[in-house]
UniProtKB/TrEMBL annotation:
Belongs to the paxM FAD-dependent monooxygenase family. It comes from Linnemannia exigua. The keyword Glycoprotein does not apply. The lineage of its organism: Eukaryota, Fungi, Fungi incertae sedis, Mucoromycota, Mortierellomycotina. This is FAD-binding domain-containing protein. Keywords: FAD, Flavoprotein, Oxidoreductase. One of its GO terms (molecular function) is monooxygenase activity. PANTHER family: FAD-BINDING DOMAIN-CONTAINING PROTEIN-RELATED, FAD-DEPENDENT MONOOXYGENASE ASQG-RELATED. Residues 385-411 are annotated as: Disordered.
Length: 411
């Protein structure tokens, strides 16, 4: 998993930043290869001095462990599958497949591309004739991805594991090979690997679309076996597969869609932008969703139906344009890193080798400037020299400060 400066200030606010760094490596540079290990290009990230934070890489399970440690156990309920929900002026009620229910003021659907919350919400809106036509279209299936993290490896065979920063290698197949495979090193002498398959070019790959969850599946071994011979700068993918427990291998589908409907009544969807799998953009944007939604929920002074609807509407209004921009950026990144058509290969050569570095750097600076934080918590200190985009202040905090100033003036 990769996290960028666009979300790390929020981790710093929560007091999680230093622990996050303890199981991460900075991603300072990347090398792009053909499937035959011919170098296509090399790239470096912006300097820490200018940005303030490094992009960091780590095993996804490490972040899960960190977050679960901070959440009281009684607040986490597992093995709950949503069957339906109902919302009204008075609240929202969830019904689960074990016949239990839960009731609250706001329902946040953060359950991914095939969100049960979104499906239920859209069905209700469609029945009422108020679901936009764009949200009724079937999601385009662009890529699927297999991911895994090895157990500890022998540093004599993989000397790159000893480097302080992560070795990031991208191998991009040719027109007859619709795969991009990526390896990067993380602490504890482990390697994270990722195989991304462009759909529509290979019948075997397309067959794998049938399962769309992040859950381990034994039948994935068939696909892994077909990829064992793929080369990396440190041996074959088969070597890494052999060092990765099969139940730790996950698969996900990346559909191509930007939904227009994010909220209705007491229900709101986050992490539903469906960004394509490049540079951790999907995870970072989902986390930014959570930060900004928390800001708008915090500003609800009186919890009633109208105030909740207003807060969720304003959340979408503040967030949508940024996600829309990231959606187009993820498309371009996907073409560069994951594309295998003739024109995508031409585009890759142009961007990597002909576009002036100054233009690429300017775009990186612009992309890095957006760093939403929780506006009801002390702000993380400004790091780096680049200008950061200002964010909308908390109405509630402003009112509290104005009241305090009036009280001081009265004295």
């Amino acid at each position: 998993m990769c996290l960028s400066p666009n979300i790390l200030p929020a981790f710093e606010q929560l007091g999680l930043y230093e622990e996050l760094l303890s199981f991460s490596k900075p991603a300072l540079r990347s090398t792009f290869y053909t499937g035959d290990l011919e170098v296509i290009a090399e790239s470096e990230t912006l300097t820490t001095e200018s940005v303030g934070y490094d992009r960091i890489l780590f095993a996804r399970t490490k972040l899960y462990e960190l977050l679960f440690k901070k959440i009281p156990a009684e607040k986490v309920h597992k093995s709950k599958k949503i069957v339906s929900f109902e919302q009204s002026q008075d609240g929202v009620t969830l019904t689960f497949d074990d016949s239990t229910t839960a009731r609250g003021d706001i329902l946040v659907g953060a359950d991914g591309a095939h969100s049960a919350v979104r499906q239920q919400l859209y069905k209700a809106l469609d029945n009422d004739g108020i679901l936009p036509k764009a949200d009724t279209k079937e999601m385009g299936k662009g890529y699927i991805s297999l991911v895994g993290t090895t157990d500890a490896l022998d540093t004599t065979k993989y000397p790159g594991l000893l480097k302080e920063d992560s070795e990031c290698h991208y191998m991009i197949g040719d027109k007859s090979n619709p795969y991009t495979w990526i390896t990067f090193t993380v602490p504890e002498n482990r390697v994270c690997w990722n195989v991304i398959i462009q759909l529509g070019l290979d019948p075997i790959a397309d067959e794998q679309i049938k399962n769309l969850d992040w859950t381990p599946q034994q039948h994935q071994k068939k696909l892994l076996d077909s990829l064992r011979h793929f080369r990396t700068p440190n041996g074959t993918l088969g070597d890494l597969f052999d060092a990765t427990p099969l139940d730790q291998v996950c698969k996900v589908s990346f559909e191509d869609v930007l939904f227009d409907t994010w909220n209705h009544g007491r229900t709101v969807l986050i992490g539903d932008g469906m960004l394509l799998p490049t540079s951790g953009a999907g995870a970072v944007n989902a986390m930014q969703d959570a930060v900004l939604l928390a800001n708008h929920i915090y500003d609800i002074k009186r919890v009633n139906f109208e105030n909740i609807k207003t807060a969720l509407k304003e959340y979408k209004e503040e967030r949508f344009d940024s996600v829309k921009d990231q959606y187009s950026h993820s498309h371009m990144s996907a073409k560069l890193i994951l594309g295998h058509t003739f024109w995508e290969r031409v585009l890759r050569q142009i961007i990597f080798n002909w576009v002036p570095q100054s233009l690429l750097t300017a775009q990186l600076v612009k992309d890095t400037a957006y760093r939403p934080q929780a506006n009801f918590l002390p702000q993380a200190p400004k790091r780096g020299t680049i200008d950061v985009l200002p964010q909308k202040p908390s109405k509630r905090v402003q009112e509290q400060e104005e009241a305090q100033n009036k009280a001081v003036s009265a004295i």
